[in-house]
Amino acid sequence: MEKIQLQNEEEGLHDLHALESAEAGSSRSRCDGRASRLLRRTLMVISLGFVLYSVLSWFPTPISKFFLHSCHPSSERLDDGFSASPFTTGDAAPLMDHKPEASAVDNKVPLEAHIMSKCPDARDCLQKLVVPAMEQISDKVDFELSFIASVSNKSTDVVCKHGPAECIGDMLILCAANLPFPPKGQSMNRTPTIRSLGFANCLISSYEKIPERSFVEQCALEHGIDFDALNECASQQDDDPGHDGGDKDPLSGIALLRKSAQHSEALGVTTSCTVRLDEHVWCVRDDGVWKDCAQGGRGSQVSVLVEEIDKIWKGLN
Fold first, then answer.
1. How far apart are the first and last CA of the chain?
2. What parts of the sequence cross the membrane (predicted)?
3. What is the phi/psi pair of residue 287, to 5°?
4. For the chain, domain boundaries
């Protein structure tokens, strides 16, 4: 009986070991199964992500804009028009291509804005009134940007209210308007107003960046201005290099600024921004508000300015 009992105990122990082995095997099998499923899911997610990335990579990726408020957008350069993309937000309108209606031989209406390049009122004046109006009537006006600065009668010094950086900004804008066009050409023509105004607006919209090289270069690129020629003009140490009194050789930046500042001073203009139409003050932007605007204060409205220019132009032609 003892031998039988011992044998039964040994058989039970053997069965227990077999059961434990089977359970262990089953447990390993379940773990292996879970690991296998997890691996498959991970590979599927990675594969799906790769496919999704491959598909999306074919779509054009937007490049961060170089805003001038929005100015820098990264914009398409047009041969005959304003920039095709928005340059700011709020009340200002984007610079857009303009199709001229007036003939090149027509009598044009004098329109002038007297500004300082690092002045917030100049920025607002251009964006809220001058640029939107020019989009509609650029072919009917003889437009000019003039600058306000102090010119010494005893020396060649020019002093700008917001410091030397503002003088550089003023010179850059004047140089851009005075460069030969097309660049490196022999023509006596200067940069089209539509380009030089776009460049000026680009700089002044982010005036705090003046005169950072990369910023100036970007604005020049966006508006078709030859940066090397621009830099040479603005950095010229001589007051009036190679200028023989004619129009063929452009003035240096400092000479242009002195001439412009003397012009503003002779007219008694001291506030940036002062807009003059047909030789008369049309509207003034000062301390963030419009002042002394024509037609009972309505002159700050783009539509009113455009209507008045159309009226004067028809009278001249």
1. 137
2. 38-59
3. 55, 35
4. 110-316
pLDDT, greater one: 251 or 71: 251
How does 243-265 read in b/e, with b if 16+ C-beta sit within 10 Å? eeeeeeebbbbbbbbbebbebbe
Task: Please tell me whether the overall predicted TM-score, pTM, comes out greater than 0.85 for this model.
Answer: no
Task: Determine the Cα–Cα distance for residues 174 and 152; give it in Å rounded to an integer.
Answer: 19
Tokens of 64: 């961060």
DSSP the chain: -HHHHHHHHHHHHHHHHHHHHHHHHHHHHHHHHHHHHHHHHHHHHHHHHHHHHHHHTTSPPPPPP--SSS--S-----SSSS-SS---STTPPPP------S-TTSPPEEEEEEE-TT-HHHHHHIIIIIHHHHHHHGGGEEEEEEE--EE-SSSS-EE-TT-HHHHHHHHHHHHHHHSBSSTT---S-B--HHHHHHHHHHHHHTGGGTT-HHHHHHHHHHTT--HHHHHHHHH--SSSTT--SSSSSPPPHHHHHHHHHHHHHHTT--SSSEEEETTEEEEEEETTEEES-TTTTGGGSHHHHHHHHHHHHHHH-
Tell me, which fold does domain 110-316 have in CATH? Glutaredoxin (3.40.30)
Can you spell out the DSSP letters for 255-277? HHHHHHHHHHHHTT--SSSEEEE
Q: Among positive and negative, which fits the CA dihedral 289, 293, 297, 300?
A: negative
Q: Distance (Å, rounded) from C-alpha 183 to C-alpha 178?
A: 11
* Whole-number Å distance between alpha carbons of 153 and 25: 103
Residues in the chain: 317
Interval 232-277: pLDDT, tens:
999 987 666 555 545 555 689 999 999 999 999 999 999 999 999 9
